[in-house]
Design goal:
globular, single chain, five-stranded antiparallel beta sheet, mainly beta, binds beta-L-arabinofuranose, 2% helix, 1 helix, five-stranded mixed beta sheet
Length: 338
């Protein structure tokens, strides 16, 4: 996440465009929707955007969120319920600032909420909190997940019952500071001709509270089997990992950040490598683009956000629209405006 905000906004704002879908709620600002179906009901785990008064900076300091609200609905198009505060930053013992994009998982009667937040040294880590209810309140563990860093956790349950976390985000998400395996505050982005920084994957332990292995790179390859380069910024990974499975294939989707696309790549197992296939969602109004893809009653949906309600990049609103596949398994690109 970063700033090229003005340029990006000018290219997407100000055009007479009709959104293909409306905000799911309008009484609060919400973003980064991670949607799941638990016990037949739809739950959306979004960021809760607020105007905290922090000035815009190049590292996304103005995304200064302080709690999570979980949204639920019985069906797409049905009434959306805001279930109130599910976790407050005050109740995360190790947290400093900026509660960013969460995800959730369910196992053996417990719901797990995974979230990135900067620790008291201003280093992004990923934490976990538990609840017996999908909407919380959640109780945070005392420490971040050991071996976790950067932002945007996505937890995927495979059909064999294994759970994997995908995570990472460059620039304001700090992934470039972990190139050596330990934190380097001076860590730089790759040069254009170098391989792009890879998102990370780690299998979760049986208790869902820790990594069962050291995080590994998720390779995204071009059609010739070559790793995407850092300069290929309409294709390479920036942030917002999501993983879903369709007809036995693993679809890894992500935001390209400064070029504002949601792209996808397909692989044969959770670790990849994944081969780049194309665009899921064209740029939306606002700098960030962040999504989830989920099957609900035999149809597939894209949950995403834009800034329709506020016109401000850090005050977003979540939306949903149907996602369709072609017979060869490719995804039909969505443009959020007609
Ligand atoms: O919501 C804060 C950050 O903005 C997320 O972590 C990124 O994915 C971007 O959407």
């Amino acid at each position: 996440l970063s700033l090229c905000l003005v340029a990006a906004s000018l290219s997407v704002f100000g055009q007479a465009k009709k959104p293909i879908s409306q905000p799911l709620v309008s009484h609060i600002y919400t973003a980064d929707p991670s949607a799941h179906v638990f016990n037949g009901k739809i739950y959306i785990y979004p960021s809760h955007d607020i105007e905290s008064g922090v000035k815009e900076d190049d590292e996304g300091g103005h995304f200064d969120m302080k709690d999570f609200h979980i949204l639920s609905m019985d069906k797409v198009g049905g009434k959306v319920t805001d279930n109130g505060v599910a976790l407050d930053i005050k109740n995360i013992p190790w947290a400093g600032r900026q509660l960013w994009a969460p995800d959730a998982a369910f196992k053996n009667g417990t719901y797990y909420l995974y979230f990135p937040v900067k620790d008291k040294d201003d280093v992004f880590r990923i934490g976990v909190a538990t609840s017996k209810s999908p909407v919380g309140p959640f109780k945070a563990e005392k420490e971040p997940i050991k071996g976790s860093y950067s932002i945007d956790p996505c937890v995927f349950k495979d059909t064999d019952g294994s759970y994997y976390m995908y995570f990472g985000g460059i620039w304001g998400g700090q992934l470039q500071r972990w190139k050596t395996g330990s934190y380097d505050p001076k860590g730089k982005l790759q040069d254009d001709k170098q391989p792009a920084l890879a998102p990370k994957i780690a299998k979760l332990s049986k208790d869902m509270l820790s990594f069962a292995e050291e995080a590994k790179d998720v390779q995204i390859l071009d059609k010739n089997g070559k790793v995407l380069l850092a300069g290929d910024n309409t294709k390479r990974f920036f942030e917002a990992s999501w993983l879903h499975k369709y007809k036995g294939k693993y679809y890894f989707s992500y935001s390209t950040g400064d070029t504002h696309f949601i792209n996808y790549a397909i692989g044969d197992n959770p670790y990849g490598p994944f081969t780049y296939k194309g665009v899921v969602l064209n740029p939306v109004d606002g700098w960030t683009n962040h999504h989830s893809i989920v099957e609900i009653k035999g149809k597939w949906y894209l949950f995403y956000h834009d800034v329709q309600l506020s016109g401000k990049t850090h005050l977003r609103n979540v939306k949903v629209t149907e996602l369709k596949y072609n017979p060869d398994g490719s995804i039909q690109t969505i443009t959020a405006y007609k």
